[in-house]
Write a structure and sequence with these properties.
By secondary structure, this protein is an all-alpha fold. The chain has a domain of 133 residues. Helix content is 80%, strand content 0%. It contains nine helices and no strands. Helix 7 packs antiparallel against helix 8. The longest helix has 33 residues. It is globular. It starts with a helix and ends in a 5-residue tail after the last helix.
Length: 205
C-alpha cells in the first residue's frame, strides 16, 4: 500500500508543471530557442508578470548607477551619492520602462489580432531573456563606446537576437496570430525603437 502511494505521488509530481528559477528558465531558452520552449516556460505555476519586474531590477539598477557615475564625474559629485541615487532611480525607471514597452508591444499585437488577455504572460516571458540582453547592451557600450563600427555591428547582432526572441514570445502568448502579423508587429515596434535610439537617444527596454 505504501509503495502504491509513493508511486502515485511520483506520477503526480511528474504531471505537475515544472517551476523554473530565472537562471533555469534562461538556460532552457538558450538551449532551445524556439516557440515551444516559451510555451513550456509559460506552464510554470509561478509564471507571473511580477517575477519579471523583479528580474528587471538588476539591469535597471546597473544602468542607473553607470549613468549617475558619469554625471558625478563631470559635476564633481560624490560617487557614493551617485551609486545610491543611480540604484534607486535606475531600478524604478527600468521597471517602469519595461512595463510600458511590454504593454505597447502586446497592444500593437492585439491591434493585429493578438490575445487581449495575454499582457501578463508577455510581461513574464519577455523578462526571461531581456535582462541578459540589456546587460550585454550596457557592457558593449562601456567597452566599445557607441560611435564606432564595432559597436554598430555588435549592437545590430544583439538587436537581431532580441527581435527574434520577442517574435517567439509574441507567438507563444498569441497563439492565434499568424507569423506574418507577428513579423509586422516586430518590424513596426523596432522601427520606432531605432528611430528613438538613433535620433533622440532615449534609453529603451
Amino acid at each position: 500500500m505504501r509503495q502504491y502511494d509513493m508511486e502515485n505521488e511520483q506520477s503526480e509530481q511528474q504531471l505537475m508543471p515544472q517551476h523554473y528559477e530565472w537562471h533555469q528558465a534562461f538556460y532552457t531558452l538558450i538551449q532551445h530557442p524556439r516557440v515551444e520552449t516559451f510555451q513550456k516556460l509559460l506552464q510554470d505555476p509561478q509564471a507571473k508578470a511580477q517575477r519579471a519586474y523583479l528580474w528587471m531590477l538588476l539591469p535597471g539598477m546597473l544602468n542607473g548607477i553607470t549613468t549617475m557615475l558619469i554625471v558625478a564625474q563631470f559635476m564633481g559629485s560624490s560617487w557614493l551619492t551617485a551609486i545610491v541615487l543611480g540604484s534607486i532611480v535606475g531600478s524604478i525607471s527600468g521597471v517602469m520602462r519595461y512595463i510600458t514597452t511590454g504593454y505597447l508591444i502586446q497592444r500593437l499585437a492585439v491591434f493585429f489580432g493578438g490575445d487581449k488577455t495575454a499582457y501578463g504572460k508577455f510581461h513574464y516571458i519577455r523578462g526571461i531573456y531581456l535582462p541578459a540582453i540589456l546587460l550585454l547592451y550596457l557592457l558593449i557600450t562601456l567597452l566599445l563606446g557607441n560611435n564606432n563600427i564595432t559597436f554598430s555591428i555588435v549592437f545590430s547582432a544583439l538587436l537581431a537576437v532580441e527581435m527574434i526572441l520577442t517574435g517567439f514570445a509574441l507567438r507563444a502568448v498569441n497563439k492565434t496570430m499568424s507569423w506574418n502579423r507577428i513579423m509586422l508587429t516586430i518590424y513596426i515596434w523596432y522601427f520606432i525603437v531605432l528611430i528613438t535610439f538613433t535620433f533622440i537617444r532615449i534609453p529603451y527596454v
